[in-house]
Amino acid sequence: YRPWLEAAAGALQRLAARPGFTYPHVPLPEPQEGTCILFCDALRFDLGQRLANALATRGYSSAVASHFAALPTVTPTAKPAISPVHDQLMGGSNLDTAVRATSTRVTIEVLRRLLADSDYQVLKGDDTGDPTGRAWTELAAIDAYGHEHGWKLAHHVSAELRSLEWRIAALLDAGWQRVVVVTDHGWLLLPGGLPKTELPEHLTTIRKGRCARLKDLSSVDQLTLPWYWDANVRIAFAPGVSCFEAGKEYEHGGLSPQECIVPVITFTRNGPSAAATEPVTIGQVTWRGLRCTVRVEGATAGLRVDIRAKPGDPSTSLL
Question: Which DSSP letter does residue 50 get?
């Protein structure tokens, strides 16, 4: 597996080293009304395909597009770049971003406030919001689990994908016309550890596993490319699938197809949702023994009541 990873990474890095190379990241277009953007940290392209296939078996349509993550492929750089408010941001210290108008460092709270100020509903937990507008929501902990547990992510990731399935289905069933799943970066995973390469720390302002922000006038042997948020800042990239730090089984931030090429997936329903026709309200539910009586307001012919163990998961239907 390691030689295959190195061959793919080497091919992309040789292309990037050519004179005149321009990395092909472009911001996503502004979403239409009726769109909920679901951000999932580290949804690698192969996992995006698995997610699309899983929802297809449940009756939902999807269109999977490829997108180049912002460089370097670390969350503080690439997540703000994929957000709908990217044009309000600028480069900050280290590899993170700041609000252009105030120079405030972008945290999750700051990003959510910018989204709300730009007329995006910020949906938390199981909230489905108003499907006539636009929304932003987040789910899954793929990146956090990978950094903490390394190769065990290969076993855990199926549970993360199931959570995404349920959330997307619940949003579409609530009336959203489309759910667009975006991510910030992919990752490399190599049981036993990725190889190490040397980069003196005194040449950098911040050094991560697969990339480093260089100090002005620093001279290094590694491939360097401009930072997405400031073309005057140079980023050094670890060669092949190596890391500037030892002992890494899971890592990202570098230049490889697995880290850079990410999915943008648009999910839609194959038929009209209940919310897209007439509003239906469950007025009262009464249990007497094993008999359930449901009073429904606004119902029309053809609607059915489904009793489930989990509201957003059709596979738990009981009756």
Answer: H
- What does the angle CA 126 – CA 270 – CA 264 come to, to the nearest 5 degrees? 65
Dihedral sign (CA 49, 51, 52, 57): positive
What does 11-33 look like in DSSP terms, one character per residue?
Answer: HHHHHHTSTT------PPPPPPT
pLDDT per position as a tens digit, 85-144: 999 999 998 999 999 999 999 999 999 999 999 999 999 999 999 999 999 999 989 999
Find out whether the peptide bond into 279 is cis, omega within 30 degrees of 0.
Answer: no
What is the Cα–Cα distance from 172 to 90, expressed in whole angstroms?
33
Among 77, 88, 76, 100, which residue's Cα sits nearest to residue 23?
77
Distance CA 57, CA 45 (A): 19
How many angstroms separate the first and last alpha carbons of the chain? 46
Chain centroid to Cα 201, Å, comes to 30
147-149-152-155 Cα dihedral, nearest 10 degrees = -80
pLDDT tens, residue by residue, 211-252: 999 999 899 999 999 999 999 999 999 999 999 999 999 999
Residues 183-212, buried b or exposed e (16+ Cβ, 10 A)?
bbbbbbbbeeebeebebeeeebeebbbbbb
Tokens representing 286 are 């009464």
Is the CB of residue 25 less than 8 Å from the CB of residue 81?
yes
How far apart (Å, rounded) are the C-alpha atoms in residues 277 and 65? 29
Nearest of 19, 30, 6, 43 to residue 168 by alpha carbon:
43
218/221 Cα distance (integer angstroms):
10
Is there a contact between 241 and 190 (Cβ–Cβ < 8 Å)?
yes
pTM, to two decimals: 0.84
**What is the spatial distance between Cα 171 and Cα 139, in angstroms, rounded to a whole number?**
13
